[in-house]
Amino acid sequence: MDELATEELVEITVTVNGTVHRERVSPRMHAADFLRQRLGLTGTHIGCEQGVCGMCTVLLDGEAVKGCLLLAPQLDGRELRTVESLAQGGELAPLQQAFKDCGGLQCGFCTPGFLMTATALRESGRRLDREQIREELSGVLCRCTGYDGILTAVDRVLNGEQR
Amino acid sequence: MSSVEVAEQQAPSLIGSSVPRKEDDRLLQGDGRFTDDVEPARSLHMAVGRCPFPHARIESIEAAEAAAMPGVHQVLTGVEVEARTEPISVLRPVPGAADLPFYALASEVCVFEGQPVVSVVAESRQLAEDAVEAIWIDYEPLAHVSDPIAALAPEAPVLHPERMDSNLLASNPQGRGEPEKRLAEAVVVVEDSFRIGRVSPLPMEPRAVVAEWRPGARELIAHVSTQVPHLVRMQLAESLRLGESEVRVVTGDVGGGFGLKLGLYPEDLLACLHAIELRRPVKWTEDRVEHFRASTHAREAVHDFRIAADAEGRFLAMTDTYVTDLGGQNSPFGSAQLSSIVFTGPYRVEDATVERRVAVTNKTPIGAYRGYGQPEVNFARELLVDRLARRLGRDPLELRLQNMLSEEELPWKNAVGALYDSGDYGRCLRMVAERIDYGGLRAAGRGPRPDGRYVGVGFTSFVERTGYASARFLANRGSRFGAHESVTLRANRSGGIDLYTGVSTFGQSNETAFAQICAEVHGIDYAAVRVHAGDTGATPLNTGAFASRTLIAGSGAVREAAAALRAKTLRIAAARLELEPDALEIAGDVVRCREQPQRAIGLAEIHVAAITGQGIPGDEEPGLEVTAHFEPSAAAFAYGSAAAVVAVDAETGEFEIERFVMAHDSGRIVNPRAVEGQVRGALAQGFGAALSEELRYEEDSGQLLNGTMLDYFVPTASDLPPIELLHTEVPSPVTPFGVRGVGETGTIPPGASIANAVCDALAEFGVEISSLPITPERVWRALREASNGGEGLEG
Ligand code: FES
Ligand code: FES
User: Fold this and answer.
1) Pairing, β B497-501 against β B529-533
2) In the CATH scheme, what is the code of domain B2-32+484-630?
């Protein structure tokens, strides 16, 4: 509880999924905890808090970053996007639909991490073949799928059906 | 004509089709509800202090300062926990084992690094963790033993002297015939000792619990990330001395289980105990460092295997004496028990014996993990089959086919009495050989190729038990759960069906498969079936999801419930339409006359009539709800074969898996995409255990060396070899729809096929491999030992 914390709280202003939030945060709190506990955006998951598993991947000013390696005060003045921003009006985004069509998820715990990583790839406009996509996605772990469905889904969205 | 047959006449069949998964929409949108996503108002947070030594006596605990820290609500130690709770029960005891009760907190002696010693509840997680740091615990380190073989030596320190004279918890011999006699007469005997490394199942979601207690209502609600909510409920009630009706376990989405989340853990119990005593919600989520020390590990075993054969290569006998490591104390499932069931594999062997020996060591307790002993024993047996082929100058493919049970020989009772139900084992093996172009590869030779590398091919064949033989089989072994599954179907007023199951959802696509079967049998739209899983307050009492049993038992329960619901729906509709029930069918959202489809009535209307009891025939009871229980008549044996093609650098030991092909049979397939996902996922775990995953302990300190994600290597997207899957579909005669379990198959073949391929590539050097994982360093060592003229057996 904040009133028991000994350290000074830091005030930040951050835009998350298009909404501006002004919050006072502990300087020790990481961004994934901030999203989950402060904003109730529990789609961003936590798997290691060491920057290895990628469960906490979010977009910071359009770039995929690991939320557990980022402190909440570093979010000040930045723009953040999470998995909750992808579907519009109850319609799955093309990437989400592709994951669904290609068997890209099982337990779904890693899915937000992959979706955000792939969203950044897509928005970068880079042309990537399947092997390059494989490399790009290797910062997020999945223990259920063996990655095949995930790769197919991302490949399909980045490069179109014909491949 | 039974209602099931009627439903099957409707085209097109849902069973066998890759319909979109029920689970996906919420998970894709970040709207899954995992246990850590649950946080009731006024929640407190728990942190656990753990023993840093593998074996130590607790001399004293100084907690007053921590208890007085601002924001700290309670500190519990082992003495208090022992007084206020019962030991955590074992769900699947080892037959013949001494009772080794364990409490949620250690009070006198700790037997593994990471064992919980104190728990603290505070206003925030950080404050609780800070308070744990402020507790002063004085330990006297004791002599430890990490290696399971060393633990059985007479000079080893005995870890549980009050209950056991040695560290051998149990030994379970099984088998038939006279293998020793056959071994003595045999022309050739191959034997070796095979070591299988210790691994972590490592689900991406760590364990978590949120406990709430309402004293006036005497209701404990425990949100737990588990594969078995109803079993956890039983264990919680027992340990907390509550009636089962006072405990409700709620399990939402589970981020992977793989056997690790099978039953009650100490932290689950502690959070509940704190919540009861503090009358506040208490939450705990494991961090990954804790996970590596306090969540069950798996696999570690040493198999001493022998195969005897005659000059023609006919297998005469097999024996396997193996030691599994239990770790420091029991876990709800304990170490693997299935090696004994499938040790002879798909082969015709009359004389065979197996003995499981369970050793206690100062390491994290071992629990279930996908495959549960089957990958381990497959590695030992299949490596020896290849060595036998080399000894006899035979082709390993031919030797396997010669000894494999044929389709006509099934059903076959193996040496321990397990009944292989049906299948064409040889066909899968021939399929993989053909797919890799075995003939062409052999003709091209082993190399070295222009790139300097040697090429090898490795095969493996296996059978896999899926589901449980029967409740009687389980009773004989003291297991505390049944072989059946139970499902409730309840019609709702929107014209849909709610399906309630105690099987929680952790990636196995059970919501989808259950809804598919329900829709198929009943006739309702797949989209109109909603699955509610994992809340013991709402779902029928069941066993839970493990041992590839969900679909085998659950599909029968869904089928029976759907058929009964359908029959009643048709009777009510028949009265309203003034037709015979036989003349009707359910098609999507209507019940209609098969001959004159315009004579129809909405399903919602029938549901409302039944639910209100208004407008139903006089001899019908109101209500439209069915609970069905189903126990399959036997376990079903899945089977398959795999081949790996590797290229090995004989200088460095580095190797590349150029191809991996598996052909398997999971009987009738309900959802092909889901099955492929299960197989690929299990294969990835199999490759991890074969190539890169191993929990290593430092010999002198007994400490875990690589207990973080930074230094325990699970496969990433770039680490897996190309995988080609083939399958056959021989229905099992012992299960509903002919399904066989599929969740664990993929864990079995990688280790054996890769090892055989590496040894094949390096055959001219005389290299043999005997342990998992197979790392370039181990291959390099094996090469050196072979070139030094030794036996060529690396350690
Ligand atoms: S939780 Fe951030 S990378 Fe694992
Ligand atoms: S779907 Fe379970 S971890 Fe990826």
Assistant:
1) parallel
2) 3.30.365.10
Q: Band the pLDDT of B547: cuts 50, 70, 90.
A: low
Find all residues with CB under 8 Å of A154, minimum gap 6, and list them. Answer: A95, A98, A114, A118, A121, A133, A137
Asked if A83 reaches chain B (Cβ–Cβ under 8 Å), the answer is: yes
Q: HSE-up of B738 (CA within 13 Å, CB side)?
A: 14
| Cβ-based contacts under 8 A for chains A and B | 181
Give CA–CA dist B230/B227, Å, rounded. 9
Strand residues in B497-568 grouped as ranges (E): 497-501, 529-533
**What's the gap in Å between the CA of A103 and the closest CA on chain B?**
6
Q: Do B673 and A44 touch (CB under 8 A)?
A: no
**Maximum separation of any 2 CA atoms in chain B, in Å:** 90
What pLDDT digit, counting tens, does each position of B9-55 carry? 444 689 899 999 999 999 999 999 999 999 999 999 999 999 999 99
Separation of alpha carbons B599 and B579, rounded Å: 10
Answer whether A63 touches B (CB < 8 Å): no
Minimum CA–CA partner of B22 in chain A = A100
Q: How confident is the model at residue B430 (pLDDT cuts 50, 70, 90)?
A: very high
Indicate yes or no: CB of A148 within 8 angstroms of CB of B256: no
Place of tokens 């064949």: B461
At A89, list the tokens: 């009006």
Q: Is A110 in the pocket of ligand 2 (CB under 6 A)?
A: yes
All CATH 3.30.365.10 domain ranges in chain B, comma separated:
2-32+484-630, 404-465+635-795
Q: What element of type H or E holds B663?
A: strand B655-665
Whether the CB of A50 is below 8 Å from some CB of chain B: the reply is yes
Tell me the CA distances in angstroms from B200 to B174, B257, B318, B658, B795, one per residue in order. 29, 11, 30, 26, 22
ipTM: 0.97
Q: How many angstroms separate the Cα of B276 from the Cα of each of A158, B225, B267, B282?
A: 52, 20, 14, 9
Residues A28 and A11 in one domain: yes
Judge if A8 and A75 occupy the same domain. yes
For residue B230 the two structure tokens come to: 């109803």
Cβ pair B112, B364 in contact under 8 A: yes
> What residue numbers bound the domain in which A24 lies?
4-85
CA–CA distance, B568 with B581 (Å, rounded to integer): 9
Contacts of B97 (CB under 8 A, 6+ apart): B169, B170, B358
Chain B CB within 8 Å of residue A124 CB: no
User: Which residues in B lie closer than 8 A to residue A28 (C-beta atoms)?
Assistant: 126
Report the CATH fold assignment for B404-465+635-795.
Aldehyde Oxidoreductase; domain 4 (3.30.365)
Put simply, whether A72 touches B (Cβ < 8 Å) is no
Mean predicted confidence (pLDDT) in B152-172: 96
* Same structural domain, A38 and A58: yes
- B255–A53 CB contact, under 8 Å: no
* CA–CA separation, A15 and B216 (whole Å): 44
Three-state SS for B35? helix
Rg of chain B (C-alpha set): 28
Query: What's the structural domain count of chain A?
Result: 2
Q: How far is the CA of A4 from the centre of ligand 2 (A)?
A: 37
C-alpha B515/C-alpha B110 separation (Å) is: 47
Q: Do A53 and B23 touch (CB under 8 A)?
A: no
Confidence of residue B472 (pLDDT cuts 50, 70, 90): confident
Residues A110 and A79 in one domain: no
Note whether A71 and A11 are same-domain residues: yes
Most B CBs within 10 A among A86, A95, A109, A129, hence the mutation to make, goes to A109
Neighboring chain A residues of B684 at a CB cutoff of 8 Å: 143, 145-147
CATH code (residue A51): 3.10.20.30
